[in-house]
Design a protein that fits this description.
464 residues; alpha+beta; 3 domains; six-stranded antiparallel beta sheet; five-stranded mixed beta sheet; 11 helices; 20 strands; 26% helix; flat
């Protein structure tokens, strides 16, 4: 198992050194794993983020993804935002590394498969693999086959996209109160970006995300407001009560046994075993019987299920089957956040800022059109960050919750929050006060790994 020679990839800034101020760069290597499947060689190629200094090994590096059956790089949960944003550059330059790894002793078909998996297959081969779900050799024979259908098919990723998006690309950096830009008061900052949707990876690989968002595009500008009272978060997951009575448990055990028999010995053998299973169920019920009436109770219960009569067993016997009720995890929950800001401009300049702040949220959350006007595109999404200062440096607030990227569900503006219509005597007739109510919902649930990614479980922040 070898790692190819590592290579520095500069994502942003001048080419060359990774020490350039403001630049984004890292070192990457390609790791090749060879294996033998049905007597023929197969390959896995992994992309490894290397330490910037020192040697790059599997112990010191981080595997951020691997290439699928046609050489496309599929990132996993360890890939960072920069790698997702500059995916095309990372994919192209690490693909070239595979050219430097040449395993020996390959047959012609194995070499063709190696070229495909490492991202260097010819386009005809790639097209045939993508279209038909199997890899086809130049003569039309399935690779690894003898004219028979291949044992495995390639699952296709869902990677559809509607191109073109009519939207405003930048806003100003707005502050309320206006002097917040010059002081060190704690603050909350809103920025916008948009994503072109999600790639659905047809995989059960534990290192790959099933849903992989396309790299977002930042929208220029921001809104910075003071931290208001009443901020909170509520983390929740959905647990539900579930029942499994003894008869259902016995039936489930019998069904699983039949499925295992069908898998190992075939359908006909499983069908022949149905009668034996029924007899075994009866013997089990008699063996566990605490009295002589269990058969009557069971018959009553089965009759109740057959005709849909509720509580027939309880009505006739005064007893019910033990439901074995317990709470079972059902699903994660998405968090929502509500903010209320009262904006009372004190002069013409601040009035202009307030109106632009309201415009920022209203226009940002509006639905976008496509170039053709045949489709509608999703509104912008928002990043929300609580900020404080460490000396002269602005940092994320370590003692308030972090918030994942959110959709703005509603923007409610009250133009007479004090109950009276009042304007200033300026040319724009600015209202004396505005109340801005914003309701956000996070796009993704919170996972345990999200906390670990923040500070490697050093507990330096509250996290999410």
């Amino acid at each position: 198992m070898t790692i190819s020679k590592s290579k520095l990839i500069t994502f942003e800034g001048a080419s060359g050194s990774s020490l350039i101020s403001g630049g984004k760069s890292d070192k990457y290597a390609t790791n090749l794993i060879e294996m033998v499947v049905d007597g023929k060689k197969d390959f896995i190629t992994e992309v490894v983020r290397c330490p910037k200094f020192g040697s790059c090994t599997l112990d010191t590096g981080t595997i951020i993804g691997k290439r699928n059956s046609i050489g496309q790089l599929v990132l996993n949960n360890d890939a960072n935002d920069t790698e997702r944003q500059y995916y095309n550059k990372l994919n192209k330059q690490t693909k070239n590394q595979a050219n430097n790894i040449e395993p020996g002793g390959l047959t012609a078909s194995e070499q063709e498969l190696y070229n495909l998996i490492t991202g260097n297959g010819n386009q005809v081969l790639i097209n045939s693999t993508t279209a038909d779900g199997v890899t086809i050799k130049g003569n039309g024979e399935p690779i690894g086959g003898d004219g028979q259908p291949p044992k495995e098919v390639t699952l296709k990723d869902i990677n559809a996209n509607i191109k073109g998006r009519e939207y405003r690309k930048s806003y100003g950096n707005y502050y309320y109160p206006e002097d917040l830009a010059a002081n060190k008061q704690d603050r909350i900052r809103f920025t916008m970006k948009f994503s072109e949707g999600t790639i659905i990876n047809a995989t059960l690989d534990s290192e790959s995300r099933v849903f992989q968002r396309r790299p977002p595009t930042a929208i220029g500008g921001s809104v910075t407001l003071p931290v208001v009272s009443g901020i909170s978060d509520q983390n929740s997951v959905d647990w539900k009560g579930a029942e499994l009575n003894p008869l259902q448990a016995l039936g489930a055990g019998a069904a699983i046994n039949l499925f295992e028999t069908a898998k190992d010995a075939g359908i006909s053998e499983a069908v022949r075993g149905i009668g034996g299973m029924a007899g075994q169920l009866g013997r089990e019920l008699r063996r566990k019987n605490a009295g002589t009436d269990i058969a009557t109770a069971m018959n009553t219960y089965l009759a109740q299920q057959a005709v849909g009569a509720q509580s027939l067993l309880s009505r006739t016997t005064g007893a019910v089957l033990n439901p074995n009720l317990e709470m079972l995890f059902n699903s994660p929950q998405l968090r929502n956040f509500t903010f209320t800001f009262k904006l009372s401009p004190r002069d013409a300049s601040e009035a202009n800022q307030v109106k632009k702040i309201i415009r920022f949220f209203k226009q940002g959350m509006s639905v976008k059109t496509s170039d053709s006007n045949v489709f509608l595109k999703a509104p912008n999404v928002f990043d929300i960050n609580y900020q404080t200062f460490d000396g002269d440096t602005e940092i994320s607030h370590p003692s308030i919750n972090k918030i994942k990227t959110c959709a703005l569900l509603s923007c409610d503006v009250q133009y007479t929050p004090d109950g009276t219509y009042m304007t200033y005597d300026d040319p724009a007739r600015t209202m004396t006060a505005y109340q801005l109510n914003l309701q956000f919902n996070e796009l993704d649930p919170i996972y345990d790994k999200d906390y670990t990614d923040l500070d490697d479980d050093q507990d330096t922040t509250l996290g999410y």
